[in-house]
Amino acid sequence: MKQFEEKILEVKNLQTYFFTDEGTSKAVNGISFTLNKGETLGIVGESGSGKSITSLSLLRLIQSPPGKITGGSILFKGEDLLTKTEKQMRSIRGNEISMIFQEPMTSLNPVYSAGEQIAEAIRLHQKLGKKEAWNKAVDMLRLVGIPSPEKRAKQEPHELSGGMRQRVMIAMALACHPEVLIADEPTTALDVTIQAQILELIKTLQKDFGTAVILITHDLGVVYETCDRVAVMYAGKIVEYTLAKEIFTNPKHPYTIGLLNSLPRLDMDQEELTTIPGTVPSPYNMPKGCSFAPRCAHAKKICEQAVPDLQTTGPSTQVSCWMFTPQWEKEYDAQEKVGV
After folding, report:
1. Which residues are in the ABC transporter domain (predicted)?
2. Residue 173 is assigned to a structural domain of this protein
3. Does a structural domain hold residue 184?
4. Residue 155 falls inside a structural domain
5. How many angstroms separate the CA atoms of 29 and 10, rounded?
6. Is the residue at 5 inside a domain?
7. Out of 90-104, 125-139, 194-208, which region has the weakest mean confidence (pLDDT)?
């Protein structure tokens, strides 16, 4: 396990809500985590768990209205990004903190060439001339493994394959050597071979540049291959926060266990994959207690009445579950006595 000493990003009790005619959606509801230099943190969970909203919140890209960051802090190198002006944030985005978006075809401008879009970021943040910025853009395309980069730099996004467009996004994100890279489902819609190439590319470039990475994904296989630590999200909250190896060898939260059990394995005899019963609750109508309780086979009365705090259960593990609290033991003992 690699050791990481210097903290570069610290998120404390972050809350991002959406105010609509249907009501208030607590998309991100009080999450906290840290990121150290050179580290890869995976954020995993089902669709609708709040992963992408978390990543957009970090760069303050939430559309307002209806969205708003209502509380918490995002400390980048000790300074709270929530106190920065929009002008200050523009100097940080793409320069010190970059993001690879989920779908490159909707993130790249269709009327500008790949090289022009990378060069624009370089000119904006590094104050280089047009020719110098263009040459660096071509060098970045070469660095991310695009063949004939001089030719590809002049092509527009629709002329490139999905894998090439994703590489262009990576080149753009890393062009200014950011200290933090947020990758939101960077291999979505790519075939398995290209997925492996993209993930290997991110790992290689991270090592070369010393960049800290936040990897947003629903794929635990990707987490196993790339991450140092993992935050498992469910219904806007972090329910388990631990080392990546602990997730696979000693998972704690029933939701994490359910995700792992739903992974296909070569030794499986059953025809169908194991699934987690039920669905993610509506963000407009969250349960009173633990949000996972309606789907949890271990739920007790206390789970339906109150939300559990994130409990420290080991040197590097925190879990939000009543099973790891004294209250759970008391309720379990009481039910055993009456034969429940």
Report:
1. 9-260
2. yes
3. no
4. yes
5. 16
6. no
7. 194-208
Position 335 pLDDT exceeds 60: no
Query: pLDDT per residue over 275-320, tens digit each?
Result: 888 888 888 888 889 999 999 988 888 898 889 988 888 888 999 9
Residues written for the chain: 340
Q: Which of 313, 231, 239, 226 is nearest to 276 (CA)?
A: 239
**Which residues of the chain form beta strands (DSSP E)?**
7-20, 23-36, 40-44, 67-76, 79-80, 97-100, 180-184, 212-217, 229-234, 237-243, 311-314, 317-319
Q: How far apart are the first and last CA of the chain?
A: 44
222, β-bridge pairs: none
Contact between 82 and 88 under an 8 Å Cβ cutoff? The reply is no
141: domain range? 97-177
CA 322 – CA 311 distance, rounded (Å): 9
Instruction: For residue 301, give the H/E element and its range.
Output: helix 301-305
Q: Which of 49, 60, 58 is closest to 76 using CA atoms?
A: 58
Q: Is the pTM of this model over 0.85?
A: yes
Q: Give how many domains the chain has, as a whole number.
A: 1
Q: How far lies 193's CA from each of 106, 171, 200, 209, in Å?
A: 22, 19, 11, 24
